[in-house]
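In response to the reviewer comment on reproducibility (Comment 2.3), we provide here a single inverse folding case reported in full, input and output, so that an independent group could reproduce the run without further information from us. The C-alpha coordinates appear first.
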Protein backbone atom coordinates (compact mmCIF):
# COMPACT_ATOMS: atom_id res chain seq x y z
CA UNK A 1 0.00 0.00 0.00
CA UNK A 2 1.42 3.36 -0.98
CA UNK A 3 0.64 6.84 0.34
CA UNK A 4 -1.70 7.63 -2.54
CA UNK A 5 -3.94 4.65 -1.72
CA UNK A 6 -3.77 5.46 1.97
CA UNK A 7 -4.89 9.05 1.36
CA UNK A 8 -7.68 7.79 -0.89
CA UNK A 9 -8.96 5.54 1.88
CA UNK A 10 -8.66 8.04 4.74
CA UNK A 11 -9.16 11.46 3.10
CA UNK A 12 -12.94 11.62 2.78
CA UNK A 13 -13.66 10.00 6.18
CA UNK A 14 -11.35 12.50 7.92
CA UNK A 15 -13.05 15.37 6.10
CA UNK A 16 -16.52 14.08 7.00
CA UNK A 17 -15.55 13.67 10.65
CA UNK A 18 -14.35 17.28 10.77
CA UNK A 19 -17.35 18.87 9.06
CA UNK A 20 -18.59 20.17 12.41
CA UNK A 21 -15.88 22.82 12.27
CA UNK A 22 -15.21 23.02 8.54
CA UNK A 23 -18.79 23.95 7.60
CA UNK A 24 -18.88 27.25 9.55
CA UNK A 25 -15.44 28.13 8.21
CA UNK A 26 -16.53 27.53 4.62
CA UNK A 27 -19.65 29.63 5.14
CA UNK A 28 -17.51 32.57 6.26
CA UNK A 29 -14.93 32.10 3.51
CA UNK A 30 -17.68 32.10 0.85
CA UNK A 31 -19.32 35.15 2.37
CA UNK A 32 -22.57 33.33 3.11
CA UNK A 33 -22.42 33.88 6.85
CA UNK A 34 -21.29 36.38 9.43
CA UNK A 35 -18.51 35.53 11.82
CA UNK A 36 -20.85 35.65 14.81
CA UNK A 37 -23.27 33.15 13.22
CA UNK A 38 -20.37 30.89 12.23
CA UNK A 39 -19.04 31.02 15.78
CA UNK A 40 -22.45 30.08 17.17
CA UNK A 41 -22.84 27.30 14.59
CA UNK A 42 -19.36 25.94 15.31
CA UNK A 43 -20.04 25.95 19.06
CA UNK A 44 -23.32 24.11 18.55
CA UNK A 45 -21.99 21.56 16.06
CA UNK A 46 -18.75 20.86 17.89
CA UNK A 47 -20.24 21.03 21.37
CA UNK A 48 -23.39 18.97 20.88
CA UNK A 49 -22.85 16.93 17.72
CA UNK A 50 -19.13 16.21 17.46
CA UNK A 51 -19.66 12.52 18.20
CA UNK A 52 -22.24 12.30 15.43
CA UNK A 53 -19.69 13.68 12.96
CA UNK A 54 -17.00 11.37 14.30
CA UNK A 55 -19.39 8.42 13.95
CA UNK A 56 -20.08 9.40 10.34
CA UNK A 57 -16.32 9.51 9.79
CA UNK A 58 -15.90 6.02 11.28
CA UNK A 59 -18.71 4.68 9.11
CA UNK A 60 -17.15 6.27 6.03
CA UNK A 61 -13.76 4.80 6.94
CA UNK A 62 -15.35 1.37 7.36
CA UNK A 63 -17.02 1.71 3.97
CA UNK A 64 -13.83 2.80 2.25
CA UNK A 65 -11.92 -0.09 3.81
CA UNK A 66 -14.65 -2.49 2.72
CA UNK A 67 -14.39 -1.20 -0.86
CA UNK A 68 -10.58 -1.33 -0.73
CA UNK A 69 -10.57 -4.97 0.35
CA UNK A 70 -13.21 -5.87 -2.25
CA UNK A 71 -11.04 -4.33 -4.97
CA UNK A 72 -8.05 -6.34 -3.71
CA UNK A 73 -10.06 -9.57 -4.02
CA UNK A 74 -10.72 -10.14 -0.32
CA UNK A 75 -14.46 -10.71 -0.45
CA UNK A 76 -15.28 -13.54 1.96
CA UNK A 77 -14.46 -14.29 5.58
CA UNK A 78 -12.40 -17.28 4.43
CA UNK A 79 -10.21 -14.96 2.34
CA UNK A 80 -9.91 -12.60 5.31
CA UNK A 81 -8.73 -15.52 7.48
CA UNK A 82 -6.15 -16.54 4.89
CA UNK A 83 -4.80 -13.00 4.58
CA UNK A 84 -5.40 -11.92 8.16
CA UNK A 85 -1.91 -10.45 8.71
CA UNK A 86 -2.31 -8.28 5.59
CA UNK A 87 -5.82 -7.22 6.64
CA UNK A 88 -4.76 -6.42 10.20
CA UNK A 89 -1.77 -4.40 8.97
CA UNK A 90 -3.97 -2.36 6.63
CA UNK A 91 -6.55 -1.80 9.38
CA UNK A 92 -3.89 -0.68 11.84
CA UNK A 93 -2.18 1.66 9.38
CA UNK A 94 -5.42 3.25 8.20
CA UNK A 95 -6.60 3.72 11.80
CA UNK A 96 -3.35 5.44 12.81
CA UNK A 97 -3.28 7.62 9.68
CA UNK A 98 -6.95 8.53 10.14
CA UNK A 99 -6.49 9.58 13.75
CA UNK A 100 -3.35 11.57 12.95
CA UNK A 101 -5.01 13.11 9.89
CA UNK A 102 -8.06 14.07 11.92
CA UNK A 103 -5.98 15.69 14.66
CA UNK A 104 -3.73 17.60 12.25
CA UNK A 105 -6.57 18.64 9.95
CA UNK A 106 -9.06 19.70 12.62
CA UNK A 107 -6.95 20.89 15.52
CA UNK A 108 -4.14 22.53 13.54
CA UNK A 109 -5.19 23.54 10.03
CA UNK A 110 -8.90 24.24 10.54
CA UNK A 111 -8.26 25.82 13.93
CA UNK A 112 -5.73 28.31 12.58
CA UNK A 113 -7.94 29.10 9.60
CA UNK A 114 -10.75 29.78 12.05
CA UNK A 115 -8.53 32.03 14.17
CA UNK A 116 -7.45 33.85 11.02
CA UNK A 117 -11.10 34.39 10.07
CA UNK A 118 -12.05 35.47 13.60
CA UNK A 119 -14.33 32.52 14.32
CA UNK A 120 -12.23 31.20 17.20
CA UNK A 121 -10.03 33.17 19.56
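Designed residues, in position order:
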Amino acid sequence: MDWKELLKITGIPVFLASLCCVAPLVLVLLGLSTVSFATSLADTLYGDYKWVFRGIGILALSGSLFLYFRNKGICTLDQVRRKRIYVLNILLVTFIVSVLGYVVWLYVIVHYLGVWQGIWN
